[in-house]
Amino acid sequence: MTPEIYLAEPLTAPTANRRPPSSAPAATGHQPSAVRRRPWGKWLAIGAVVAYVAVLIIAPLGALVAGAFARGIPPIIVALTDTDVLSAFWRTLLISVIVVLVHGVFGTAVAWVMVRHRFRGRALLNGLIDLPFAVSPVVAGYMLILLFGRDGVLAPLTEALGIPVAFALPGMILATLFVTMPFMVRELMPVLHAFGIEQEQAAATIGASGWQTFRYVTFPALRHGFIYGITLTFARALGEFGAILVISGGIQGRTETTTLYIFRALDDRQYIGAYSAALVLGLISLILVLGADRMRGREH
């Protein structure tokens, strides 16, 4: 007898009749629920950020505006045209301009040296640059008193030169220079790092002097960072209070800046004058910062 032979069915079905694995999603045009985006998470994060900014910035600004305009515009004009207010604003602007000029030169030089050179003590110097961020401005003012006060270490020198520092304009300038020192340096150092040295070396190979290299090669690459650092420095100088209060004594008509006037006006319950001066000071700083941010956005 011839044995019967049975052919087993193929292990795999033809391609045309093959079904997709059960674990694969069907082609229905919808994403699986496990990977579907949840829009409520996005809006929750945005709402938290908006609430955070509103509580810390928008609400105080709104309260300031409401307090300034509580009795209308005429009292604001009267308050801002007061002799003490104008003198305080002028003194504040003078200090801020001097500070910006000094940091514009020396802050740029410090940033360039810190990036382009390696030397012993560089790490210590780099840490000291950030010291004004960590030290209270009141402590900074007290340190200046210890140096230039009546019994200060450098008091004999200032008396011999006939230049009063404590409770005078020079001391106020020094205090503001201290608290604003990091802004220019920290703004320019990353820009110098990113710029590199290739173009400077190329300029040197064609005979350019150090000043020509800096003027025509380095500084044009730094100009946006330079302007942004100047803006931050100026805005910070406008609002300095603690260090100036200690070193100046807040003498009305002589060493009183705008922030000191605001402090005195609140203490004397001259609320419209205090609110009006604070509003003007805040608007100037806000315009400066927004303008610098807009300029930085155009750069990028």
Describe the protein in words.
By secondary structure, the protein is an all-alpha fold. The chain has one domain (57-299): MetI-like fold, CATH 1.10.3720. The chain has 13 helices and no strands. The protein has helices spanning 39-68, 73-80, 83-116, 122-129, 131-134, 137-148, 155-161, 169-195, 198-205, 210-238, 242-248, 258-267, 271-299. The radius of gyration is 32 Å and the shape is globular. Residues 1-17 have low confidence and may be disordered.
Shape: globular
H/E element string? Answer: HHHHHHHHHHHHH
User: Can you tell me the number of structural domains?
Assistant: 1
Total strand segments: 0
Per CATH, what is the topology? Answer: MetI-like fold
The CATH class turns out to be Mainly Alpha
Uncertain spans, ≥5 residues at pLDDT below 50? 1-17
Count of helical regions:
13
CATH superfamily: MetI-like
Helix content: over 70%
Query: Major sheet: size, sense and barrel closure?
Result: none
Q: Any idea what the CATH architecture is?
A: Orthogonal Bundle
Estimated structural class:
mainly alpha
Q: Strand share of the residues?
A: under 5%
Distance between the termini: 91 Å
Rg calc: 32 Å
What integer is the average pLDDT?
85
What key phrases describe this protein's structure?
300 residues, MetI-like fold
